Amino acid sequence: MFFGSTDALSAEHTSRFLVPLLHWLKPDISPAAIAHIHFLVRKAAHVTEYAILTGLLFRALRGSIDGFWRRAAIALVPALIFAPTDEFHQSFVPSRTASPIDVLIDYCGAIIGIVVCRAVHLALTSRSGAKSSSG
Fold first, then answer.
1. Cα separation, 27 vs 91, whole angstroms
2. What is the per-residue pLDDT across 16-72, written as a single tens digit (0 to 9) for each?
């Protein structure tokens, strides 16, 4: 995640592979459409990386923290701390900009990670309950 906040994954660098891909998929794509898609891909990356971070933290706490919601809250804390510090780091990278909106997007990603964990938890719980009642 720290690497993602460096110049290497700035908008300028990510456009180098995204723009040719979009032109290959749709040769007549407009510059405005490219800019919009590039923006959405970059924001989706924020959501995805924080959902994965929180999901992995949640999984790492399995067995050591009892109760789904307690474990979920503890898994959220590092993501909620890291998001603003990551944006602060970006404020020192000339090709990057720090944005409070990105922090909120990161927080949404972390919450989505917990929602996915909850869905998986419920699916596994209902499956194990069905197996034990039929056996």
1. 35
2. 677 788 878 888 989 899 889 888 988 898 899 999 999 999 999 988 888 899 999
User: Does an H or E element contain 65, and which?
Assistant: none
Q: Are 41 and 14 in contact (CB under 8 A)?
A: yes
d(CA 32, CA 38): 10
Cβ proximity of 2 and 92 under 8 Å: no
Specify the DSSP class assigned to residue 6: S
Q: How many helices (H) and strands (E) does the chain have?
A: 4, 0
Residue 92 CB neighbour total at 10 angstroms: 9
Instruction: Return the DSSP state at 5.
Output: G
Contact 126, 80 (CB under 8 A): no
Q: What is the pTM of this model?
A: 0.78
| For the chain, the helix, strand and coil percentages under 3-state DSSP, each to the nearest 5 | 80, 0, 20
Per residue in 75-125, pLDDT (tens digit) is 999 999 999 998 888 788 776 677 899 899 999 999 999 999 999 989 988
